[in-house]
Amino acid sequence: MKWIILISLLFTFLQADIKTDLYHLYQDKAFEKACRNGLKVFQRYRKDEEFVSLYAFSCLNADQIDRLAIPISILKHSEEARSNAAYFSVILMQKKLLFHSLVDNYKLVELSLPKTDHVLSRVYELYSQVDYQRKRSHYTYTDPNNNKIMYKLYIKNTNQNKKMVIEEYYDTIMTHRHVYW
Question: Does residue 40 have a pLDDT over 50?
Answer without folding.
Answer: yes
